[in-house]
Amino acid sequence: SEADRTLLFLGRIHPVKGLEMLLPAWKVLQSRFPDWRLKIVGPDNRGYLAKMISLSNSLGLQRTEFCGPCYGDQKLQVYADADLFVLPTHSENFGMAVAEALATGTPAVVTKGAPWAGLEEHGAGWWVDVSTDGLLAGLSAAMASDRDRLASMGRIGKAWMAAEYSWPEIGSRMFQTYEWVLNGGHPPNWVLVD
Questions:
Q1: How many CB atoms lie within 10 A of CB 121?
Q2: Which residue in 9, 68, 15 sits closest to 38, CA to CA?
Q3: If 157 and its partner were Cys, which of 2, 31, 73, 102 is the partner (CB 3.0–4.6 Å)?
Q4: pLDDT tens-digit profile, the chain (194 residues)
Q5: What is the pTM of this model?
Q6: Which residues face 128 on adjacent strands?
């Protein structure tokens, strides 16, 4: 039967993003999970896309699509249409794509190259070692999950993003931070003081 579930990578096609770990992991996953496809969305970075397409071809990858970049509402729709988001990054100071995926209700598998331990604490995804084996373990668990479980994790992630990263929450934290700076007392728990 045709693949009707989507694993999404969305980001710059750049060495730091870890596609050279994801593609070999997909080589193993594609036969285990014939109902899944891998969709890679994002702009080329200095010819790295050609290298990744070449790697994909040499690995004999199936159900793998390189889609180019998308923006705005179209990007949000791509996240929302995916069943699972993956960020196999080597190093990320935040990982905006993870927050965007979660905000649209899509659970995520993210390497420990990005600071997303909260995925497992909240039950909105998997936080895995920065390696092909780490990705393989996390993606296997995620892709073996039924639609209801992933949808439930997606709802949890969406609520988490609304609670922690919505404009009202950001505004409230800014206000409390300035109040502490002006008046002293105990710092808010999001302020680190050496």
A1: 10
A2: 9
A3: 102
A4: 567 999 999 999 999 999 999 999 999 999 999 999 999 999 999 999 999 999 999 999 999 999 999 999 999 999 999 999 999 999 998 889 999 999 999 999 999 999 999 999 999 999 999 999 999 999 999 999 999 999 999 999 999 998 887 777 778 888 888 889 999 999 988 888 87
A5: 0.87
A6: 111
